[in-house]
Structures are given as C-alpha cells and as structure tokens.
Amino acid sequence: MFSMQRPAGVTAISILFLLAALYLWTFGAVKLAAPEAVSLMSVSPLMYGLELAGPYMALLIGSGYAVIAWGLFRIHNWARWAAMLVIVIGVASLVPRISMAELGVPVLWYGLQIALRVAAAWYLAQAPGVIDAFAAKKQNS
To answer: What is the C-alpha separation between 131 and 23, in angstroms, rounded?
Structure first.
C-alpha cells in the first residue's frame, strides 16, 4: 500500500484554512442566533467584501475554506490551486490597505500579512517537496 508523506507546510496551511472556516462558521452562527451580538465586519479580512451579504454568506465561505483545508490535508491538487487562488485574492485585498495606511505599525502589519501570504502561495506553487507530494498522489490515484 502506498504511504503518502504530507509536507509539514501543507499541513500547517491546511490547519490555517480550517481555523479560518471555524472562525467564519462561529461568526455566522452567532450572527444568526443573536443578530446584534457581533458585526460581520470582523470577518471582512476573510470574506473580501462579501461580508455585506450576511451570516449565510459567512457560513458558505467558511464551508469553502473547510473544503480547501480538507483537500490540502488529503493532498488533492485542486485544493492546492484553490488555496493559491484564495491567497492571491487575499494579497490583492491588502494592497489598498497598505497603500492608505499611515507609516508605522499599520504598514508593518499589512506588509507582514502580504509577506506571509506570498510565502505560503510560493511554497504551495514552487516547493519541491510539495510538488513531489502532489505528483505522487496524482500518480497513485
């Protein structure tokens, strides 16, 4: 039987996607149960403008993050591409924020977020261990 070795970085990125899903599900559920308890603007960094659609959209997007997390954990190539797409959208959404930020901590914070997201996307796209793991999974499917 083929024993697949998942790279640690892919596992870490998968866990981050799962945490994002849990965060979105929690906010969506709380917003449905008690509409005035929380503001969906708290989830705007993960929803890229769709937070205005309400708590059902938070639950739906959270489900999308969970599916990507599951796919990365199971070493599915479509999940790798979907994760890279979500990460690129996240970087694009940070460009206006860093452009308008005051010098100091806000620029550092947004710059750090951009750098980490670019590093994660680059890792998923180019790391030899990642490419080998996904190629091995594809060959044995």
So the answer is: 29
Phi, psi angles (nearest 5°) of residue 137: -65, -40
Read off the amino acid at residue 130: V
Q: What angle in degrees, to the nearest 10, is found between the helix axes of 105-126 and 8-33?
A: 120
Tokens at 132, concatenated: 């080998």
- 60 CB contacts (<8 Å, ≥6 apart)? none
CA nearest 77: which of 124, 113, 9? 124
pLDDT (tens place) for every residue of the chain, 141 residues total: 344 688 999 999 999 999 999 999 999 999 999 988 888 788 888 888 788 788 899 999 999 999 999 999 999 999 999 999 999 999 999 999 898 988 889 899 999 999 999 999 999 999 999 999 998 877 776
- Listed residue (140, 123, 138, 126) closest to 9, CA to CA: 123
| Contact status, residue 83 vs residue 113, Cβ threshold 8 Å | no
Model pTM? 0.89
